[in-house]
Design brief:
Layout lengths: L1 H31 L7 H7 L13 H10 L11 H12 L9 E5 L20 H4 L19 H5 L5 E4 L2 E4 L9 H5 L5 E5 L4 E3 L7 H7 L9 H5 L5 E4 L2 E4 L9 H5 L5 E3 L1
Antiparallel strand pairs: 1-4, 2-3, 5-8, 6-7
C-alpha cells in the first residue's frame, strides 16, 4: 500500500506541475504575442505557393511579409506573374504594374553528335558531381552543357527535359524562378525575355580555332552577326555573340548570316 500511495502522489505532483507550467506558458504567450497583420493571409494566398526563392526570399510567406512592408516588391514574384500582381495590388490598394515575362534559356547546342568528349562518364547522373571530375566533366568544351539533367530534376514545373545531351526549356511551362540557374555548375542557363525570338545557343569565350576543337557548331566570334544586324543589337562579349533585347527587332538576319548556325530563331 505505501508503494501505491507514493506512485499516486508522484503522479499527482507531476500532473499538477504540468498544469501550472501550462498556465504559465499560456500567460507568457498572451503577453508576448505579436498579432498577425490581417492582410498577411490574403497576400500570402495571392501567391502561387511554390516557395522557389525566385523572388529572393525563403518562401511565399516570407515574401508576403516583405511585400506588405514594401509595396515596391509587388511585381517581383516570377512564378505568380501578373495574376499574382493584380491580386496583391487589389488587396494592398496600390497600382498594379505589369511584369515582363522571362524564361530560362540554355546557352548551348553542343549535342552529343557535334560535341567532343574526353571520356565516357559512368558516374552519378548529376551535373555537379560530373563537374568535380578531371577537366570539369566529360565534355571537352568547358562551357558546354554536361547533360546529366540536374536542372531538369530541380525544376518544379516540369519545364526542362534532356534531348541528346542538352537541356531544353519549355517556354510555356517555365516560370523564370531561377532554380535551374543555381543548379547548373557550368553557368550556362540565363533568363531571357519570354517573347524574344532570337537567341545565341553558345557562351564559349574561346577563340574560333579552340571552339572548333571542342564543338562543331560553337560561336567562333567571327563578328558577321554584329556587322549584319540593322538594329545594332548584337555585340561580341568575350568572343561570343550577345544580344541586346532592348534593341533586337527579331528580324532574323543574324540567324541567316551565322556560319556556325548557333544563333537560333524561335
Amino acid at each position: 500500500m505505501p508503494t501505491i500511495n507514493i506512485i499516486i502522489f508522484s503522479v499527482l505532483i507531476i500532473g499538477g506541475l504540468g498544469i501550472v507550467f501550462g498556465l504559465i506558458l499560456g500567460w507568457v504567450g498572451k503577453i508576448f504575442n505579436v498579432p498577425e497583420d490581417p492582410i498577411f493571409p490574403a497576400v500570402r494566398d495571392a501567391l502561387p505557393g511554390a516557395n522557389c526563392g525566385g523572388c529572393g526570399y525563403a518562401g511565399c510567406a516570407e515574401f508576403a511579409k516583405n511585400v506588405i512592408a514594401d509595396h515596391s516588391l509587388i511585381n517581383t514574384c516570377p512564378v505568380g506573374g501578373n495574376e499574382s500582381v493584380s491580386k496583391m495590388a487589389e488587396i494592398l490598394g496600390v497600382e498594379a504594374k505589369p511584369m515582363t515575362r522571362f524564361a530560362a534559356f540554355v546557352r548551348c547546342a553542343g549535342y552529343n553528335d557535334v560535341a567532343d568528349f574526353r571520356y565516357d562518364y559512368q558516374g552519378l547522373d548529376d551535373c555537379n558531381m560530373a563537374a568535380t571530375l578531371a577537366g570539369g566533366g566529360s565534355k571537352s568544351c568547358k562551357f558546354g552543357c554536361l547533360g546529366n539533367g540536374s536542372c531538369a530534376r530541380i525544376c518544379q514545373f516540369g519545364a526542362i527535359e534532356m534531348k541528346d545531351g542538352i537541356a531544353h526549356v519549355d517556354n510555356e511551362k517555365c516560370t523564370a524562378c531561377g532554380m535551374c540557374i543555381a543548379a547548373c555548375p557550368r553557368d550556362i542557363i540565363r533568363l531571357v525575355p519570354y517573347d524574344s525570338k532570337i537567341r545565341v545557343a553558345c557562351h564559349s569565350t574561346d577563340r574560333g580555332k579552340e571552339v572548333r576543337a571542342h564543338c562543331e557548331i560553337g560561336c567562333i566570334g567571327c563578328n558577321i552577326c554584329q556587322k549584319s544586324c540593322p538594329a545594332h543589337a548584337i555585340a561580341l562579349d568575350n568572343s561570343t555573340a550577345s544580344i541586346d533585347y532592348g534593341k533586337c527587332t527579331n528580324c532574323g538576319l543574324c540567324v541567316k548570316k551565322c556560319p556556325s548556325k548557333i544563333i537560333l530563331k524561335f
